[in-house]
Design brief:
Radius of gyration: 20 Å
Structural class: mainly alpha
Order of helices and strands: HEHHEEHH
Number of helices: 5
Length: 107
């Protein structure tokens, strides 16, 4: 399923806020209480997005919703990560030379 920007933003909010809230992200279903905590931290409101609560295919049980995109995002390969020995494929030659600069004075 292709996610919209809003959906991706909420998935990323789950990934960002879950560890501090004690919510395990190594699963594909989340309870209503867990998602309310995420929403409260992200927007200051307890409302869970409709694309989760109103989609019958996301229902895993009473008050539990399937959001497999969280694990998919966590398992996605990011540039610089080595997966199965592909470290050379992620490296690129340096193109610019870094030169130290002096901080400018603002008067």
């Amino acid at each position: 399923m292709q996610l919209t920007n809003r959906q991706l933003t909420y998935i990323n909010a789950i990934i960002a806020h879950a560890p501090a809230l004690g919510i395990d992200t190594n699963k594909s279903s989340f309870s209503r209480a867990e998602l309310r905590q995420i929403s409260m931290n992200e927007k200051g409101k307890i409302w869970i997005p409709n694309w989760i609560t109103h989609d019958q295919s996301r229902r895993a049980g009473r008050g539990v919703f399937n959001i497999p995109e969280v694990m998919e995002q966590l398992q996605a390969v990011h540039p610089g990560q080595e997966v199965e020995g592909d470290g050379l494929a992620d490296s690129a030659p340096e193109t610019e030379t870094m030169t130290p600069c002096e901080p400018s004075l603002v008067m």
